[in-house]
Design goal:
Blueprint (H helix, E strand, L loop, with lengths): L2 H8 L17 H16 L3 E5 L5 E5 L11 E6 L14 E3 L7 E2 L6 E2 L15 E3 L8 H20 L6 E6 L13 H4 L3 E5 L6 E3 L4 E10 L15 H10 L16 E9 L3 E10 L2 H22 L4 E9 L3 H4 L4 H12 L5 E2 L7 H6 L7 E2 L3 E2 L7 E3 H17 L4
Parallel strand pairs: 3-8, 3-9, 9-16, 10-15
Antiparallel strand pairs: 1-2, 2-8, 4-7, 5-6, 7-18, 10-16, 11-13, 11-14, 12-13, 17-18
Helix pairs in contact: 1-3, 3-10, 8-10
Length: 406
Amino acid sequence: MRAFERLLRYARVDTTSDETTGVTPSTPGQLDLAAQLADELRSLSFEGVRVSDDGFVYGVLPATPGLEALPCLGLIAHMDTAPDISGKDVRPQIVENYDGGEVVLAGSGDVLSPAQFPTLASLKGKTLITTDGTTLLGADDKAGVAEILTACEEIVRSGMPHCRLAVSFTPDEEIGEGIEHFDVEGFGAAFAYTVDGGDLGELGYENFNACGACFDVQGMSVHPGSSKDTMINASLVAMEINAMLPAGETPRDTEDREGFFHLTDMQGDVEKARLRYIVREHDAAHFEVRKQQLRHIEKILNHRYGVGTVKLTIKEQYRNMAEMIRPHFHLVENARSAMRAAGMEPRDVPVRGGTDGARLCYMGLPCPNLCTGGYAFHGRFEHIAVEDMDACTRMLVALVGLYSKD
């Protein structure tokens, strides 16, 4: 079975994650897909296959005779899809021999256009898989799941000599709440890769340092006719908070390793207001400066309006994996070699976000991120090419081969 065929099958299962449920996995569809994937691993001669109570799928393909002493290699992908847009009733469109032009998405009438997505030019002549315009596709990260299983099938079918191979499929990556339950010791790998990237050749071994920040503003409501020097309008104070942040350091205005403050939501009235931000920065020292900027705003406004007017809460989320990858740089070098073997030109891409691997690095499992070949994730214009999924499958087979040399 080819990787795209698996993707089409997995896309039928609604695995949209939901940060409001407070449980892991956050939605029952993830357990449905987990059971299906566990069955596939068993059919490929994986041993110790299990689905944990919190929705993680684990399995091990034993090393071929003579290679048992080699370190165990791990491959990881996540099952959930982003809550930004529905992952239910996904109806993929297949465009054979794509001509490089516009594609009408039949469900919505929207147009997938090279003017908006210039990377479509590189997919001309390939078989394109798109959404119908009403949902996301789910290639993030069901393409990664499909490519891992297809690579494992190829390894088993061909009789290729291989090291011990540990595979896991994880829940709730999209809401950043699953991986803390990952059983690193039980997984048993010395090092691993997440298969959760985008364009062909994309290799991620550094990412943002990240935190969430919440400003709660306590105002004082007084009749506007007699509120001189008394009223504190919480919504206006909230506006001051945002105005004190650098206007050009937002996601829209930054790229590559440039960090940002991103206002994700706001609410308020005269009496109370709340602003939520995510804060991102590749450089650890600059990241601390960003957090200090927020604390300084809290201090200034409490001095201006009174202690307790503004309360800042900062929640650490994840850290840059680069620090943990550098001592194991063979992971990067071998990934580059495997990509070239699969016909790709490797590109080191700083991840403008986080991956399960970033968290796993600080849990004792060095884990850079590999491409899946997908584009425009988390939206109705998501798309991927069949041939690019095949290339990613070849990359994984080549990678296992590199770690299976005695």
